[in-house]
């Protein structure tokens, strides 16, 4: 219960009339953080270079639309006034005036009063105004006027304190602080008759308009000079101006008056319809105290504030409705009424009238769309559909979410897309008698019809449907055309009615329906002319809006040709409501919704973008000429300056080194880093949405890196030479060392060779001695063999004697024969000893090994083994051992036992293995 009461109280509070703001021109505010200067702006003017100049206390500010620059006087005094003539910017300050000029991208100052004793030491004079009159420059302070003819300076001192001087036609007026207004004639002054009302007040402006002289005072309002006297300006705005204090005033083109006040911002009065607009801190101005007014070449307004600067596009074809309170919320649709506006927002439906708006009862919540049919306004709302007529709101139905309402191309039937399908309104006079298209119960965002008994419906999420029905709207067939056409990415389909044709925008590609193939096919005309389009909204048969890469373009269609007009991004940046861009046409202008209000654009709006851009390139804070060289690995900043600050500011892109991509220029500056050495070219293009037109270019060269400079290359050559020299020396040293090592190695090899030769000689000697020994051994073997033969002969002799004994019977003869045989075969004892010695030497190793293995062998056993190793038979061994044959066999038997041989083992073979 408490919650309901709170809601009722809240919406009752909103329903009360809340002060709001009419359509206002676009305002760009610049604060101290933007221009890095002081608070007050005392004077503003545009130079011949199209840059804006500002007197900002201690600084002269310069702004070319891209970069802010600030300069201070040599004596650091406050700059109160400026005047621009030609290439000179005259400035006035404390006991000082002179002029500035631009050289190499910087402002230079020349003092006119230097070394001249124009000011008394006791004076506290500041130059508050500079103007030209009768060919001379006038520098005005609060007490004096200094007249400068280009060579000489004349000083005129007034007997009273003055505020400002004003040139009106051929007359010069001097306004005192409390003695009224005076006309100046040479060095003489006089008070005009009938103007005594201006005494004790400060005159801040005198302007001529349609032959009448308007005098603007600080606290008494505006007076008009008529019939030799002054009469108050008979306008309700005059009382408002009195209350807020006039600081400055100017008449501008289109019969308008601009008045800057002390505490209520600026008033723009239109003499054509006798209405005014107030721009102050309550809407878009960031400060209410206006100190000065200036104009640019587009005749737009520049305000110098007590704290900051404001650029007001009073001549722009675009106007704005702001809601700074946040009560209105995000605007989803807006329509004009006889008394004001009807607004659908996410907070509800609001009625705007006479500078006030209120929420219509029972409409709180999300409002989607407002469509005007005759005198009726059909409002799609989250809670249903409403009809607003003659100030009365009524509910048509309770079907939620009326996104869009579209009229059939073939009759007066209207189709409404909702959260749950499509509603049909056959008779506008009976809106409650509506019908629902059955079998399509899904959220539909867009509907269109160009053929009887058939409509096109785009799903809120994905898919395009072709719905066919009978005369009573009973569904006959529903086809998913994007599926049939095999379009995979069919999210967010948009339906666009262009003249008598229906087009479909799907994933940045334009399609039309081919009834023969029953499929979608790409539309050549639109795909050729409108690329990368993410949204499209119709205004009328020949006008529509497209959104291309975040930029809005107003398109005028003439036959099959399209004229593009860019709508500057600054007007809506970050304020468009995605997928909910809506247009309402009203006579010669149209309204477009934003998330904090809406904008109004002229239907015949043509943005003739300026082509005359100027390029300034800076490297290390130095201005570069075209085709100049910059150091390697330094930043190059190219400022692309159009001199246009308002709606006609061109949309600029650039290409570098004839690349294929067009790169957008952000905030008028191109910043290039990491550039390679050599020549480079930057070409600037103006883009109207369809074409890229070249408007300027800049060529430059990047120097070789420092490590490739002439001196560095020379250093490299010296280093390489030094390295080669030391390398040569080092190689030579190494070669000498190598020769020494080779000599030592040769010496060492020679020594080794000598040692080897010596060893080889010793080895040869040993071999020789061994050979001698072998020869001796062979000799001894021969001797042994001889002895063996001798022994064999003795045996033979014995056998012969035996035979003699057996055959001879004559004893003497026998005796003689025996003696003869013995003498022939007599064995020499010495030869026997030699035989045994040689035998032992020959078989010395064998005897040693045999004695070690079988230590129990006797010398006779060893002698037998030697004979057996010599492969002698028992018969040959018997006489050599002086034993019988049987004795040898018996000795052999015993030897086998001592050698532990079996019966199967051969004794002689065994001995060969020892």
Reconstruct the topology from this structure.
Blueprint: H1 2-15, E1 18-19, E2 24-30, H2 32-35, E3 43-46, E4 52-56, E5 59-63, E6 68-71, E7 79-85, E8 88-93, E9 96-103, E10 106-111, E11 129-133, E12 136-140, E13 144-148, E14 153-157, E15 162-168, E16 171-176, E17 181-185, E18 188-190, E19 203-209, E20 212-217, E21 222-226, E22 229-232, H3 236-244, E23 246-252, E24 256-261, E25 266-270, E26 275-279, E27 290-295, E28 301-305, E29 308-313, E30 318-322, E31 331-336, E32 340-345, E33 349-353, E34 356-359, E35 367-373, E36 376-381, E37 384-389, E38 392-397, E39 404-407, E40 414-418, E41 421-425, E42 435-436, E43 444-451, E44 454-459, E45 464-469, E46 475-480, H4 481-484, E47 494-498, E48 501-506, E49 509-514, E50 519-522, H5 524-529, E51 533-538, E52 543-548, E53 551-558, E54 561-567, E55 583-586, E56 589-594, E57 597-602, E58 614-619, E59 622-624, E60 628-630, E61 636-641, E62 652-656, E63 663-664, E64 669-672, E65 678-687, E66 692-702, H6 710-807, H7 811-824, H8 829-842, H9 844-853, H10 859-869, H11 874-881, H12 885-898, H13 907-912
Parallel strand pairs: 60-66
Antiparallel strand pairs: 1-34, 2-29, 2-30, 3-4, 4-5, 5-6, 7-8, 8-9, 9-10, 11-12, 12-13, 13-14, 15-16, 16-17, 17-18, 19-20, 20-21, 21-22, 23-24, 24-25, 25-26, 27-28, 28-29, 30-57, 31-32, 32-33, 33-34, 35-36, 36-37, 37-38, 39-40, 40-41, 41-42, 43-44, 44-45, 45-46, 47-48, 48-49, 49-50, 51-52, ...
Helix pairs in contact: 6-7, 6-8, 11-12
